[in-house]
Amino acid sequence: MERRRRSNVGPKGTRAAEPSAANRLGRKPKARPASVRRKNLLLDQKKLDLLRRSLRVSTDQEVVERLIDEAVADRELIDATLALGGAFPDIVDIGKES
Question: Are the CB atoms for 44 and 60 separated by under 8 Å?
Answer without folding.
Answer: no
